[in-house]
Model the fold of this input.
Amino acid sequence: MKKGFSKKALWAMGMFLLLSTIVLSVHIYLVTRHKAPEANTLVMARIDLKQPITKEDASKITAWLYQQKGVDHVLCNPDSRITVFSFYPVKTSADEIVANFKNSLNYKAERFVPSKNQVQSGCPVAATSFTYKAYKALNNLF
Done:
């Protein structure tokens, strides 16, 4: 009698684990798939300044970026000469903001866009994790 119970319990636990894995994989696929930006979608962009700037320049850059349509938050570091800002892509684009930035403020600057290799190596844990492998497997199916 105990043998039959343990087989049923083991089978039930195995089925629960399989079902949980399938549900988790589908969830990861649905959450990570690419979709068109919505009204609440926020995107980050980076501007690399190709000249030294002071704290006053950083304040001027920050103030100017906050005045741009669709910009939500701005961080400007004069030591690293990097400016990062978040914006709503349904209202504007990073390329448009950077082009207006270069024309209006006359700084030597360019938008930083990571290469495909840089994007893939951004999180060393992600490429080896089970959830990433499950995502890739599901992504290849669809």
User: Anything to note?
Assistant: The longest strand covers residues 43-49. The chain has a mean pLDDT of 87.
